């Protein structure tokens, strides 16, 4: 960008203000003079016209036309050349007399189009001024409208005066600009020498000449600038002197450093010899530490084995087995440290032994399941049917490699699945090559990192939060090579990775594992429901290999079709991803399958004992984590056929839990219902009607758990949750998100924003009960709960309303009345949003009404609102949803006219049920 010089700025700052002031003053005075000239002309014209009107009126009454003509000509001559013509017209606009016959104005277009005046008026043309003066009436009542005078005046002289005035103004402006320019040039002439001297001094500094001459300057600012330049010169001179001294000192130090470097080379040679000795001592130390660490671990493992011999419940036994496996894993880790030391020395310990391949890998996968469950990943272990089970190899080393590779796959995968596939390639009758692969749906590995993956370093950038040292893969590679195998991978960025390794093994003719009770399962019919593809295929293959007759279902529609075709099955097996808000759905599914299957088993992706106990209380025979351990699954489904089935009875706990709970909801009906349900379970309960009030309460009281609605006025639930997490007394308190509708991915989004869990409306006692048990440290008291199938009526379902109100008729009636009372206001908001074509307002109104109807038995309204809300969230336009909106209006009107009284038999039946409870 080209910079502007000081000369230009001085001229601009001098001339521009003068020009603006001159223009403003010239314009003002010219305008004022022009107005005064025009006003003077009009006043003079008015005086002439009025005097002629008075004189002409008297002569007209006497009908003295000659006298009037003489009067008009005399007035014309007296005021010439200002007056061009004077004409007299009657009331109809006909010309009577004129002072200038050559200017007959009666035929002019402007005269014919102009309305005849009743008072003095002016008509301004380009070069003339026309004045209309009506004649005066002598008798207002008897005399008709008189005529009028039309005077035409010349304006050329006026225009000439205005042009002369403009010329004078222009000359004045020019004079002012010349004076301002002269002043600017004078200032430039004054500043130029002094600026040149300052520039010369700066050039001397740039050339390294620090003895700068001082000049006398007449401007104070320039004098101060020169003083600064002189001070800068003195400082630069001192710095140059100090730098020269430093250079001499550094040169001297460099010479000394060269001498010391020779000494250090000799010392490094001695240090290298010492490092080799230290490495040997480190190996000895690691061997001793390995022994010392094994001692307490052996005690943990030994006492765990002893405890397993005592009478234990199913869950206690499962927990102890997990402790035992974790201790063994830690023991293996200690051994790995020793192995790495031996790896550096070039020695590796491989101990082949007979083992059960399936049991070993199932145990390893069971340890990996916890991390996979935390990230909601599908973990699957698949054995090819021809793969043998009894082999001779080092099971600890195989597990070590698998745990490392699968652990990395879980670490670097955010969503999707981890599939572990085991296959065997026979070499001869005694030898085979075991091929194990781990396929994930993670982010993949870039090409620049793939070549360094097994180098034992961290090849991933520092900004990558999920990294490791790379030592595990290096050890895995060395272990696989020591077992006469290979290791490798295939990966593309964004498409996941597949790591694989091969192990050379020998067949073992005798069976090492304990036999499974498969003869009890032969020809048993199994109804298997599993939405996840890989888990479904792996478990189906396992069940089929056991001789079971399996009917597999991937969707609820296929499940219903299977039940319709065959109403009886020996075993029902359900695989589901489970969360707290899905517990009720799974319980209802189990209770439904209980009517078709003798025994129902669950495979879930959780290790939470609370959720598993809740699912077992629904009537499931067993609840196992996914992927199902082959041995545990076989033993569980065969157990009822080994001994009579024992019925479990659990006492219902009627005591209130010692908890302090906060509920937050802006809808009065929703808040009342959740408070009613919680009062039967907890001792202390607080409520808030918006996020701001909830945050205020959390800064004053400590709560055990908080139930937070999402869409609220003043402060929404997400912002309130984040404020509570940042600054309150409840930063660690579980906060449960509660909303009437949730699309796919909503749970993950809310949990990432700070919520502990996510629940969908409608809530009920069981869902709240499971939530309290999962997130609060209280004594678990299970209740036998039976789901009742309800058949929805077209408009109002009283059975469903009672179920939502925990069997309380009064509460169900009140909830329905509150909903119907709010319908007119909601309908008005929905209509206004449709009229304004405002999708956000419409979505908010539908969501609020949806949340209110979730607690009442109005399934038709609820389903319609849910469909509309889903379509709006997906971006559908209001015009596209017009049929559904018309149907919504019809349903609202039907509800307003419907009978809201609960049937008497239903009230009596509910009362009997409550009394029996």
TrEMBL record:
All copies of domain Histidine kinase, residue ranges: 288-507
Domain named HPt: residues: 808-909
EC numbers, comma separated: 2.7.13.3
Class of this enzyme: transferase
Keyword Membrane: yes
PROSITE patterns, alphabetized: HIS_KIN, HPT, RESPONSE_REGULATORY
Residue ranges crossing the lipid bilayer per the database entry: 166-188
Pfam families: HATPase_c, HisKA, Hpt, Response_reg, sCache_4
Keyword entries, A-Z: Coiled coil, Kinase, Membrane, Phosphoprotein, Transferase, Transmembrane, Transmembrane helix, Two-component regulatory system
PANTHER family listed in its UniProt record: HISTIDINE KINASE, HYBRID SIGNAL TRANSDUCTION HISTIDINE KINASE J
Protein name (record): histidine kinase
Highest classification ranks of the organism: Bacteria, Pseudomonadati, Pseudomonadota, Gammaproteobacteria, Alteromonadales
């Amino acid at each position: 960008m080209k910079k502007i010089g000081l000369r230009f700025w001085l001229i601009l700052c001098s001339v521009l203000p003068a020009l603006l002031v001159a223009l403003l003053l010239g314009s003002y005075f010219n305008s004022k003079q022009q107005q005064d000239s025009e006003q003077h002309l009009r006043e003079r014209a008015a005086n002439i016209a009025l005097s002629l009107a008075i004189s002409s009126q008297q002569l007209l009454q006497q009908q003295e036309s000659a006298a009037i003509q003489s009067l008009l000509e005399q007035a014309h001559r007296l005021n010439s050349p200002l007056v061009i013509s004077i004409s007299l017209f009657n009331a109809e606009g006909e010309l009577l007399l004129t002072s200038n016959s050559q200017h007959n104005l009666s035929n002019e277009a402007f005269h014919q189009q102009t309305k005849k005046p009743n008072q003095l008026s002016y008509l301004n043309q380009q070069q003339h001024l026309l004045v209309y003066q009506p004649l005066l009436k002598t008798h207002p009542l008897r005399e008709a409208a008189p005529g009028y005078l039309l005077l035409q005046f010349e304006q050329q002289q006026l225009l000439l005066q205005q042009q002369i005035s403009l010329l004078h103004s222009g000359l004045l402006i020019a004079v002012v600009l010349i004076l301002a320019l002269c002043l600017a040039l004078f200032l430039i002439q004054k500043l130029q020498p002094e600026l040149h001297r300052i520039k010369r001094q700066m050039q001397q500094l740039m050339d390294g000449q620090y003895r700068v001459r001082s000049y006398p300057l007449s401007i104070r600012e320039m004098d101060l600038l020169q003083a600064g330049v002189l001070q800068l010169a003195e400082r630069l001179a001192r710095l140059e002197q100090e730098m020269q001294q430093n250079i001499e000192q550094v040169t001297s130090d460099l010479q000394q450093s060269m001498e010391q470097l020779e000494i250090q080379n000799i010392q490094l040679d001695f240090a290298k010899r010492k490092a080799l000795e230290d490495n040997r001592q480190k190996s000895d130390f690691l061997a001793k530490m390995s022994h010392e660490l094994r001692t307490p671990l052996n005690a943990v493992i030994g006492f765990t084995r002893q405890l397993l011999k005592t009478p234990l419940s199913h869950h206690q036994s499962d927990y102890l087995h997990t402790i035992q496996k974790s201790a063994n894993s830690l023991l293996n880790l200690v051994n790995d440290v020793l192995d790495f030391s031996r790896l550096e020395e070039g020695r590796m310990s491989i101990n082949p032994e007979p083992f059960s391949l399936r049991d070993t890998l199932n145990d390893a996968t069971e340890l990996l399941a916890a991390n996979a469950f935390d990230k909601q990943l599908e973990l699957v272990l698949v054995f090819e049917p021809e793969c043998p089970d009894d082999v001779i190899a080092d099971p600890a080393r195989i597990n070590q490699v698998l745990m490392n590779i699968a652990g990395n796959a879980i670490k670097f995968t955010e969503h999707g699945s981890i599939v572990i596939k085991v296959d065997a390639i026979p070499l001869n009758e005694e030898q085979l090559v075991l091929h194990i692969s781990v396929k994930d749906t993670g982010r993949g590995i870039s090409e620049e990192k793939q070549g360094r993956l097994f180098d034992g370093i961290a090849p991933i950038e520092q900004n990558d939060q999920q990294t490791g040292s790379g030592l595990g893969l290096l050890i895995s590679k060395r272990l696989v090579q020591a077992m006469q195998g290979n290791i490798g991978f295939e990966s593309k960025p964004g498409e996941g990775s597949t790591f694989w390794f091969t192990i050379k093994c020998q067949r073992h003719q005798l069976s090492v594992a304990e036999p499974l009770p498969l003869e009890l399962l032969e020809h048993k019919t199994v109804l298997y429901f599993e939405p996840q593809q890989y888990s479904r295929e792996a478990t189906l293959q396992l069940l089929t290999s056991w001789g079971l007759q399996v009917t597999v279902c991937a969707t609820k529609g296929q499940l219903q079709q299977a039940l319709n075709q065959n109403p009886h099955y020996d075993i029902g097996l359900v695989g589901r991803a489970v969360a707290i808000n899905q517990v009720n759905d799974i319980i209802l599914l189990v209770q439904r399958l209980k009517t078709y299957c003798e025994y129902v088993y669950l495979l879930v992706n959780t290790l939470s004992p609370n959720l598993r106990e809740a699912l077992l209380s629904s009537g499931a025979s067993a609840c196992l984590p996914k992927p199902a351990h082959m041995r545990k699954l076989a033993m569980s489904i065969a157990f009822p056929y080994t001994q009579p089935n024992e019925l479990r009875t659990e006492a219902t706990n009627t005591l209130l839990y010692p908890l302090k709970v906060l509920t937050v909801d802006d809808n009065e009906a929703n808040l009342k219902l959740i408070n009613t349900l919680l009062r039967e379970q907890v001792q202390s309960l607080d409520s808030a009607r918006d996020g701001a009030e909830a945050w205020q309460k959390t800064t004053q009281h400590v709560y055990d758990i908080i139930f937070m609605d999402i869409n609220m006025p003043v402060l929404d639930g997400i912002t309130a949750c984040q404020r509570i997490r940042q600054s309150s007394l409840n930063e660690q308190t579980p906060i449960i998100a509660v909303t009437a509708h949730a699309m796919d991915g909503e749970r993950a989004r809310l949990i990432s924003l700070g919520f502990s869990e996510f629940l969908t409306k409608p809530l009920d006692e069981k869902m709240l009960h499971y939530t309290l048990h999962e997130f609060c440290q209280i004594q678990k008291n299970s209740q036998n709960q039976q789901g009742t199938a309800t058949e929805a009526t077209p408009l109002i379902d009283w059975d469903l309303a009672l179920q939502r109100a925990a069997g309380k008729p009064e509460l169900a009636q009140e909830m329905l009345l509150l909903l119907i009372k709010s319908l007119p206001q909601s309908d008005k908001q929905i209509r206004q949003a449709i009229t304004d074509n405002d999708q956000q307002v419409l979505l908010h109104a539908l969501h609020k009404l949806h949340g209110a109807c979730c607690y009442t038995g109005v399934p038709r309204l609820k389903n319609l609102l849910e469909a509309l809300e889903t379509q709006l969230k997906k971006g559908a336009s209001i015009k596209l949803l017009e049929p559904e909106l018309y149907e919504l209006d019809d349903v609202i009107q039907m509800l307003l006219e419907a009978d809201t009284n609960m049937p008497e038999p239903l009230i009596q039946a509910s009362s009997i049920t409550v009394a029996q409870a």
